[in-house]
Design goal:
mainly beta
Length: 174
Amino acid sequence: MWNLSAGLEKPAEDEEPVNEDPKILHITEASSVEHLNPLIHDEYFELCQIGFDADRQIVTIPFRRIFHGVRERIVRRGLFSTIYEVDVLRARLLIKNASAVKIRDNANLAICSFNTIWYESSLDAIKISCCEDCELEIGVTAIDLFYEALDYGGTAEIRRWLFGIETSGSRVRE
C-alpha cells in the first residue's frame, strides 16, 4: 500500500512500493516525540546542513532515508553477504519554538546517523543521539515537530550479512 501521497512518485516503474510510512507527521506532545524513532533511526544527515533560524525559531535537519520500506534490488551476491540497492527518500525534520541549538560532536564527523530522539523535560529540550559519538540538544519553549518526506533522489546500498547484520554507508549516488 502506498501511503506517501502529495507528490512522491513510485521509485521504479517495475515495482510496487511497500512503504507504509506517513508523508507528514506532526508532533505536539512530549510523550509522542519518540514516535519519530522508527522513521529516523540509522538514517544519515550532515551536521553542516542543520539550519537554525533564530528569528523564526525553527531548526531544520534535512536527511536521507535508506531504510524506508521500498523494495530493494539485488546488486551483488557474495559468499557471506548480499548487497541491495534502494532509492533514497529525502526528508526533513523541523523543530519549531527552538530557542537554542547545541551540538556535541566528539567524533568530529561531517555525516552522522540518527539513533534516538526524545524530549528531556528537565532541560526543556529535544535531544537527538547519533550512532556515532555525537548528540544534538535543541532548547524548545513548546513541543512542535514536523517530519516531512520530500522526494526520491539517488540510490544507496545496504549490505546484509549471513548472520542477520545489516550495514549501509552514507554515500548516495545521484
